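Re: Re: ligand-bound prediction request (bumping)

Still looking for help on this. To restate: I need the protein modeled with guanine bound, output as structure tokens. Inputs repeated here so nobody has to scroll up.
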Amino acid sequence: MIKIAEIISGTEISKQIKNEVKAEIERMEKEKGKRPGLAVILVGENPASKVYVASKQRGCEQVGIMSESIKMDDSVSTEDILKEIEKLNSRDDIHGILVQLPLPEQVDKNKVLEAISPDKDVDGFHPINMGKLVAQKDCFVPATPLGIIEMLKRTNIALKGKNATMVGHSEIVGKPCSLLLLNEWATVTICHIETRDLKMHTKDADILIVAAGVPYLIKEDMVKEGAVVIDVGINRITKDKASSELLEWRKEDFDKKQATLIGDVDYLRVEPKASYISPVPGGVGPMTIAMLLKNTLMAAKKTVGMK
Ligand code: GUN
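Reply:
Sorry for the wait, this slipped through. Here it is.
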């Protein structure tokens, strides 16, 4: 018998979350006469950033969040961005502020992130929110790791006492995700580029979360039988770089767009070994958007005094 892993559909779970957020926003309008507002600062012309910002705005429209995008030139200075943030910090109709990363080299990213009011920091990148996450205080948590935990919880995957291996140690995903797993009483291992024996750690994982940005990093011999595999990678593979297997699997994408998106996990080989697996696309990506919308709702609820 061929075993097939259950697919954890971020697309489906994110729809549920968006419906819940939408219902809460309708209640806010009825009870308080207000709607949440999100401001997104986009600097430069990074194509991936443009796509991400557009899908964040589409998500806002779907649930009834007022969204505003501020586009700034590639040559912008740190001070120019700080001025915009100051204005947004003082506006009553803006409850969430996010600055799309990466920023150009001349901009001091830390200064920018620290200028956002921690109460409007829906990305959860402000050191105050990061510190509160460590201390397990009520705070904004970055949307991607929050989405990962939410998809595990809504799939009824227990975390307590499990071996969880996080591949990737970024501030945006790896570090906060490791803390969330730890807060759920998982035994957490964090791997990164200097990890000597990656396979030893991935093979030990009941829950394997991969956010390295390296296509095909995780092969089937690196995964324990029955593991839960969450793939955070988003890698664009163009037709000229694709294997014949990928060309066949994603024929429609290549015919239409000359490219496809894959994660960090060798999906076709790992899937038969896993008990649950999240696909790319349609896994963590849509969860990130849904959790950002939820964070924005949370920010607005606090300011209008709604439980
Ligand atoms: N760039 C990549 N991921 C993110 C994210 O979650 N938030 C922001 N602001 N920028 C990003």
